[in-house]
Amino acid sequence: MQIDALKKLFAQSGLKFTNQRYLVYKAMVEARDHPSAETVWRRVRESAPAISLDTVYRTLASLEARGLVTRVPGGSEESRFDGDASPHHHLVCLQCGGIEDFVMPGAGLADLPPEVAAWGRVRDAQVLVRGVCRRCLGL
Amino acid sequence: MQIDALKKLFAQSGLKFTNQRYLVYKAMVEARDHPSAETVWRRVRESAPAISLDTVYRTLASLEARGLVTRVPGGSEESRFDGDASPHHHLVCLQCGGIEDFVMPGAGLADLPPEVAAWGRVRDAQVLVRGVCRRCLGL
DNA sequence: GTAGATGCAAATTGTTTGCAAGAGA
DNA sequence: TCTCTTGCAAACAATTTGCATCTAC
Question: What is the model's pTM?
Answer without folding.
Answer: 0.94
